[in-house]
Amino acid sequence: MRIIFLLLCCLLPWQAMAEPTGWSHALTLFGKAKYPAYFRQFEYVNPQAPKGGELKLAHPATFDSVNQFILKGVKAPGVEMIYDTLMTGSLDEPQTYYPLIAQRYRRDVEAGWIEYELNPRARWHDGKPITVEDVIWSLETIKKEADPVYRLTFAPLEKAEQTAPRRVRFSFVKPATREAPLLSAILPILPKHYYATVPFNKTTLQPPLASGAYKIGKVDAGRTIVLQRVPDYWAKDLPVNRGRFNFDRIRYDVYRDATVALQALKAGEYDFRQENVARNWATAYDTPAIRDGRLIKTEFPNALPQGMQAFFYNLRKPIFRDRRVREAIALTLDYEWVNRTMFYSAYKRNKSFFQYTPFAAKGLPEKGDELTLLAAFAHRLPKELFEQPFQIPETDGSGRDRSNLLRAQALLDAAGYKIVEGRRVDQQTMQRVISPMQKGLKRLGIDSAIRFVDDAQYQRRVETRDFDIISGWYNYGVHFPGVEQANFWHSSQADIEGSSNVSGLKHPAADAAIEDIMNAHTLEELAPAARALDRVLLWEHIVIPHWHNDSYRVAYWNKFGIPKTHPPYGLGLETWWIK
559 and 543 share a domain? Predict the structure, then answer.
């Protein structure tokens, strides 16, 4: 048996309703909005923050397109900032949205629609008004021509139609999911008149017409992109934007070598770095600039749900089709030893796909909806799921604990893989972390290798599923599981090139749980379905769980003003300013 690890770090961020009938200013998934109508600004901003200066950032991958909506090409960083949506979220409450292009909304739950009234001041950067026709065209185009992730995300929106000169109504596919209203709120709104002469489905480095606080300025393919603040941005004084978007320019320079990027920060080549390597955080910042306060090294608390960062198996590969083989390979990761010797004990182990939320599976399946859902697929699930709580493997941290390898050996034997001339043969038909795993795999008779590829090769191999194991991060920041779970795990997405179901999971129990998640309209309906999905994903051993840190580790040059209040659900870098 030979396994190829393809290294990746994939962060699929997801955002996703609620509210009373009649016109309203705030759209929430569950509960009541924090900010009342006519609020002045978010609590975590400084409304008097000065505008000006340049924020210089590093980006780890090259790019060849500024079109973020299609599958082709490698997207440039920051381009998501150039477009406005109908409403925008806050960073101090879960999945709650406030007016941006739309100045208010109303909805009819029973009839299955939501209607927005557009702000008459809303403008594109060329000065033309943002119209209902733009909104309708955006939905139709994204559902037909965009990246599969966009198409599936906005699939619950059946159509958009004009109801008055500045009013647009979205109708939902029936039965309507609870998230459908929120999806309409975050739909990217694109200029119909611009794309009348520019192809939507082509890669490009030509800055497109947009509507946001920034527009694309200089573009040097694969090396640099500069976003320029729009001085006469139409929405700069709205409550959701007051105190935000304070830098005149945001510049991203590509550093494909991580070591070079770190040295460039210390040399002052860029301004801000979020450190994701525990060894660097512990050892690489002992510099005069840190000691004298010119370069600041600190941590900000992070209350976001952590989701699941992990090594993901490609279940399309014959060697990974047996659950016992997947479990056996996972047992070769001695996390306790890795965390102590490589990560300076900086991390906590991931134990759920919905870490730090009420939807993480604990104990045995709860009687009621969760147990009923799972019991219907008992013939496809391991019997242990119903008999014992799921446990992430642990060791004594010595690096010499053989108990997990012995357990892995028994699993491989049971799966029909025998040792023949020192290698495991099927008789029936992150480099530092992986290296110790390779030694364990070798002791089990399994060959493995690490394959490093450039950005374009990596993206293409992931899209075409040409890998054995990759590193990914799913559900990060997801407070309430929803339609994104279909992107990640539903059988319908397993064979679609470019979809987010990179593992290729096809499991009827997961499909049923996802459908219940999307159709849930209350927390009481959502919780059992989400816990059932978590339990299925864990017991099917589709991943080798990684670890997480519940704070942002950042280093930045002492040139910034920072609001006194820090938001719990994000860094809020757009609220900083140049002193």
Answer: no
As for how many domains the chain has, the answer is: 2
Tell me the H-state helices in 397-450: 403-414, 431-443
C-beta pairs of 148-154 under 8 Å, 24+ apart in sequence: 148/71, 148/493, 148/496, 148/497, 148/498, 148/499, 149/487, 149/498, 149/499, 149/500, 150/69, 152/483, 152/486, 152/487, 152/493, 152/499, 153/183, 153/483, 153/484, 153/487, 154/183, 154/187
Asked whether residue 96 falls in the same domain as residue 195, the answer is yes
Q: What angle do CA 72, 77, 82 make, to 5 degrees?
A: 95
Describe the crossing of helices 403-414 and 431-443 by its angle, rounded to 10 degrees.
Answer: 60
Q: What is the pLDDT of residue 12?
A: 33
* Domain match, 162 and 180 both: yes
Q: Helices 323-330 and 403-414 meet at what angle, rounded to 10?
A: 160
Q: How far apart are CA 412 and CA 324, in angstroms?
A: 7
Q: Is 231 exposed, middle or buried (0-12, 13-18, 19+ CB in 10 A)?
A: exposed
Q: 199-226, pLDDT tens digit by residue?
A: 999 999 999 999 999 999 999 999 999 9
Residues 331, 219, single domain; the answer is no
Positive or negative: CA dihedral 510, 516, 517, 523:
negative
Q: What is the CATH number of the domain that holds 511?
A: 3.10.105.10
Same domain, 164 and 313: no
In angstroms, the CA 100 to CA 85 distance is: 7
Contacts of 17 (CB under 8 A, 6+ apart): 27, 28, 29, 95, 178, 179, 180, 181, 182, 183, 185
**What share of the chain in percent tops pLDDT 90?**
75
pLDDT of residue 157: 97
Kindly report each contact of residues 381-389 with a partner whose C-beta sits within 8 Å and lies 24 or more positions away, as own/partner.
Answer: 381/509, 381/536, 381/539, 381/540, 382/323, 382/539, 384/539, 385/535, 385/536, 385/539, 388/364, 389/362, 389/363, 389/364
User: Same domain for 233 and 326?
Assistant: no
Q: Which residue has the tokens 């749900």?
A: 305
Full domain range(s) for residue 502 = 305-548
Residues 353 and 485 in one domain: yes
Asked if residue 208 and residue 163 are part of one domain, the reply reads: yes
Side chain identity, residue 436: P
Q: What are phi and psi for residue 226, nearest 5 degrees?
A: -120, 125
**Position 562, amino acid:** I
pLDDT at position 424: 62
